[in-house]
Amino acid sequence: MRTDTGQVFRLEDYRPTDYLIPRTDLTFRLSPDATRVTAVxxxxxxxxxxxxxxxVLDGDGLTLKRIExxxxxVEQADLLMTPDQLTILxxxxxxxxxxxxxxxxxxxxxxxxxxxxxxxNVYCTQCEAEGFRRITYFLDRPDILSVYTVxxxxxxxxxxxxxSNGNPVDKGDLGDxxxxxxxxxxxPKPSYLFALVAGNLGKVADSFVTQSGRNVELGIYVExxxxxxxxxxxxxxxxxxxxxxxxxxxxxxxxxxxxVAVSDFNMGAMENKGLNxxxxxxxxxxxxxxxxADFANIEAIIAHEYFHNWTGNRITCRDWFQLxxxxxxxxxxxxxxxxxxxxxxxxxxxxxxxxxAHQFPEDQGPLAHPVRPRRYREINNFYxxxxxxxxxxxxxxxxxxxxxxxxxxxxxxxxxRHDGEAATIEDFIRVFxxxxxxxLSQFSLWYHQAGTxxxxxxxxxxxxxxxxxxEIEQSVPPTPSESRKRLMHIPLAFGLIxxxxxxxxxxxxxxxxxxxxxxxxxxxxxIVRFSGVSERPALSLNRGFxxxxxxxxxxxxxxxxxxxxxxxxxxxxxxxxNTLLTDTLxxxxxxxxxxxxxxxxxxxxxxxxxxxxxxxxxxAYRALALGLPGEADIARDxxxxxxxxxxxTAREALALAIGSANQGAFSSLYDSxxxxxxxSPDATSAGRRALRNTLLDYLALxxxxxxxxxxxxxxxxNMTDRAAALAVLAHRxxxxxxxTTALAAFETSYGSDALVMDKWFQIQASVPGQQxxxxxxxxxxxxxxxxxxxxxxxxxxxxxxxxxQIGFHRADGEGYRFFSRMVLEVEKRNPQVAARLATALxxxxxxxxxxxxxxREALLAIANTENLSADLRDIxxxxxx
Length: 881
Ligand SMILES: [Zn+2]
Hints:
This protein is α+β, with helices and mostly antiparallel strands. The chain contains 27 helices and 33 strands. The two termini are about 25 Å apart.
């Protein structure tokens, strides 16, 4: 474990290296406790570098067995070794020389899952961001691109399969039960994209013919016996390859493309060149074990990692400050892919919900940072919703501002100009400026400035002058180390809607530049006047969520109800209903519901019934609309002095009101949606299941609800329905005979399937109630649970922290005490996963004073622990700052 050194890395300190490594030849002789790695590096001094410049290589916990330069051993006196560096004080005078090093590793004992490790008898690597330095000494930074040739030697019985990046070149027998394989990757790449996998795995094989007619062999490797679960992933891969050719003109470039699923993995998946390594949760699926959400995630993540081949691998990042260059852009690409494969409107709503749930709290709390941060202590902590999700929104805004054609021209220029390079955000912005002739300098603040901008909007209609006026003011709240903010360029899509739902035409506009239904906000305050508008229109703002901002709109409830029924923009229509729900819930939490608002609530329950039964809307859309804002969403929108118990009570009451008012209609719709056809994971079928399961959640609150949910559970023919019913029983009827029976039945059926048991842990960890902390504590001793497997830790402990508002935020602080114990316990094995868990308290300052004090104590208990990892200390200290 790398303990914290307090070192801060700054963007402005970037400097190119003195040396390059054009070639890297690696030989691995694999053994669980003593793997030998021989690295032969071709080192080249840059022209500008003085001959006396030392060569400083990164390392982390390595045992160096041998070091030679040009075949001659290097004297100890010529070396300087610290725990994280190896310095060759006087490299040879020749500009190019060969450095040979032999290191010894113990993959079996590597529980941090960074570098080379062994999981379920499979050797596997994870090098992003700084794992390669745990394999050999290297210039372990993304701007050092090298051509890799790799030879893997292993006992054939232990590892019949030997994989690395690039194309296979060689294999053979070595006697004594050993064998080897050689791989060569012709594309220069940074060390974080290096990968090796060796073990006994089953293979699903297929092939793909690229647009230029090249044949690519595709392989998905899984635990033997699980091959039949990889079919959906393979299908998603082929669709991704085709889509990237059609939509971005990007063709695959090697002869093989391999994916390996492993059960112990810190992240979702990793885009290593030609050899993607996946968390098995994002590969394995069939109707019996995976939910519709799992299928959608597999499709999106397979696509994401594949798309990285161009946005990340062929063009990589100059340094880790530029992480969003590959991540934000690739998330944008996978969102577009999913939107094309499924329903664009539904996908957009889901994206925005995710952004608000994960990124908005980040921007509003102590961990706020720009999409391109300027400093970090531990880069592992910057794989954040801001870099990924907000990073994607920024790319989306570029497309909104430029239009699709100029955006595509900019992307083409990006690929043409920077292929084979390590680029920066400035390079990325420049291609769009060059391709479109537009000035994006003010816009680029989206990369450099943290915080969610707020737009305050009011409107006025003057029937005599036939003028409709919008007053729009922007502000960006202060964030840590950025107290003063500059004005942003915000593309705000809008619509003016007439009484019949039709768009309202206007004859002129002044006060801001308005093009293609988008108002370009650039100043602090705009007064936008639309002329030739005779009747007051309803105002639809931030259509399609064109900008990741919060809106404070002075708008009549009647207009919101109108938009929730008539807005032609599907996102804004959903938003209008969601705003009505949120406003009602917040008023209920604050006990400010008056008689007027009771009438309002009645209108709302009626509208919910109408949306549920509206056959012109896709079932998936109706399911999203009827899903009430989550307790964490309500807390975020309230902002401060949060009492999770009051929020829970208000939300349950509204759910009951909607369910009771619509019982008959919901019940017959529920019956009509029962699946009669054979199971299919496609979006339309999934949408019907989603709507039916949402209705079940309402109906379960009414008399007979437990029996209905139990029937749903026991008659389910797929995991989506089974898991949904189990959650309804466990959450709505906790402790009932029906809930207990269903939980036991689920455990009996799936006790030996770790990924399915994750759902069982998740459902129990999110049971709203004071007692859940005890349940979760007891479940940490369950035989299917393991403290060293990230998926298990996230499903039980992570879910309790992030998805159980009243259990985790128990007023007596027991949830928080459990938090500090668990975070420290996980950290002993895996600092990266522990640091991620610790972000669950990032919004502690928004709690009411009693809980706030107890949350602070829990954070201090971690901060006061000696020898914390760099990962955890960084998060905890920033959270407390
Ligand atoms: Zn990625």
